[in-house]
Design a protein that fits this description.
Layout: H1 2-10, E1 13-18, H2 20-23, H3 32-47, E2 51-56, H4 59-67, H5 76-99, E3 105-110, H6 112-116, H7 118-133, E4 137-142, H8 156-166, E5 171-176, E6 197-199, H9 220-231, E7 236-241, H10 247-252, E8 259-262, H11 267-277, E9 281-287, H12 289-298, E10 307-311, E11 319-323, E12 329-334, H13 339-345, H14 353-357, E13 371-373
Parallel strand pairs: 1-2, 1-5, 2-4, 3-4, 5-7, 6-8, 9-11
Antiparallel strand pairs: 7-8, 9-10, 11-12, 12-13
Helix pairs in contact: 3-5, 4-5, 8-9
């Protein structure tokens, strides 16, 4: 367990999920003091080189508080209204706090289609990567204002896990109103013991999970499921109490707090296997010897200049094969441009993409993070 906790100290990309009960002081309006404390810790961590994305609940709960509603709406439209009213206050609170440390924030609202649709998937991933590069703090929430039951993630724990998959996070931190996973309900049994560590996906842990609060859709079961989901791309998960003093700082220092659920998969390899395994091949790119060497020997991205020909009809985000000049398949990956666009830019340097297409969504035809060698 010590080694596992030490690995947290080495993690450089975190997704931090903050639950509704924490953010709204159990339904009494936004807890701006708590938000200020988390922002201070996160800003300090970012100054130390840790990249952080926040997945924030609280829009519906904040909307309920502003509207004077004591009971969570049961209708879709009621939830959408509460989310619309609450989202503005939620984002303003984050923006104000992070500006104290010279950090910009970015609001990103997602629904399930944004992850399942391959073009949107790439758009979201590329946007998040660029925000991270610029030192901006992305604040992600489910798009409750327009989402219906058919396109919901179901809860922000699941959303946070999918974001962790999306951006290859080292660590998912789920902050909740409990100090972690206990072997009994600590609100009812004073001698309940904290489960300090375990394996993501260990079904034996599910017997310890209780019910959710009235403010959010999730509970401890959703957090365990989120840890299992995050683990498929090699992400470890910590479930910890958001009200613990300096919780984020202390976690980053390797202190044993909360419940650590460890993935048994290598991060990049696991994500790429999942990525390739879920998609059908929609076309192929024949690449020259120089591009082949760059992919195989140096782990580089595929640039348009190295492409000789394009076969098949595919859309942005589709999976395509990369074939060398002898017809041997050497890689597969997700393309940043559709087949028509790829034909127009093949053989050109990346600096010429905008000249050929009138825009440039990415310098690479296939980014190395979305490329698997064969």
């Amino acid at each position: 367990m010590t080694n596992d906790r030490d690995s947290i100290k080495k993690s450089k990309r975190w997704v931090i999920k903050i639950g509704s009960a924490l953010l709204t002081d159990d339904g009494n309006g936004l807890d701006k003091v708590a938000i200020a404390q988390w922002a201070e810790q996160i800003a300090s961590q970012m100054d130390e080189g840790i990249e952080i994305i926040i997945v924030s609940s609280g829009a519906v709960a904040e909307g309920m508080s502003r509207l004077g509603w004591s009971t969570r709406p049961s209708s879709v439209h009621g939830l959408q209204v509460a989310a619309a009213v609450g989202q503005t206050g939620l984002v303003q609170a984050y923006e104000f706090q992070f500006q104290q440390y010279g950090r910009n924030t970015a609001q990103i609202l997602l629904d399930h289609d944004d992850i399942s649709n391959r073009e949107r998937y790439l758009n979201v991933r590329n946007t998040l990567q660029e925000l991270i590069k610029l030192g901006v703090v992305p604040i992600i929430n489910e798009n409750d204002t327009v989402a219906t039951e058919q396109i919901r993630f179901g809860d922000n724990d699941t959303l946070a896990a999918m974001v962790a998959n999306l951006i290859d996070a080292d660590l998912l931190v789920i902050l909740t109103d409990q100090d972690g996973l206990f072997d009994a309900d600590p609100r009812k049994i004073s001698k309940a013991n904290l489960v300090a560590s375990g394996k993501s996906g260990d079904e034996a842990l599910y017997k310890f999970a209780g019910s959710s609060s009235s403010l959010g859709r999730g509970g401890m079961i959703t957090k365990l499921k989120a840890a299992k989901l995050a683990a498929r791309s090699g992400t470890n998960t910590v479930i910890a109490g958001g009200r613990i003093k300096r919780i984020l700082t202390r976690l980053s220092e390797g202190e044993v707090l909360g419940t650590l659920l460890v993935s048994d998969k290598e991060p990049i390899v696991a994500r790429k296997q999942w990525l390739v395994g879920r998609l059908n091949v929609c076309g192929s790119l024949t690449i020259d010897s120089g591009a082949t060497r760059m992919l195989i020997d140096h782990g580089k991205s595929l640039l348009p200049v190295g492409v000789i020909s394009v076969e098949g009809s595919f859309s942005k985000g589709d999976l395509v094969k990369c074939i060398d000049e002898k017809g041997k398949e050497i890689a597969r990956g997700l393309v940043n441009y559709n087949s028509t666009e790829s034909i127009k830019i093949l053989g050109n340097s990346s600096s010429m993409i905008a000249d050929q297409l009138g825009y440039c969504d990415a310098e690479e035809l296939i980014h190395r993070d979305n490329l698997v060698l064969f």
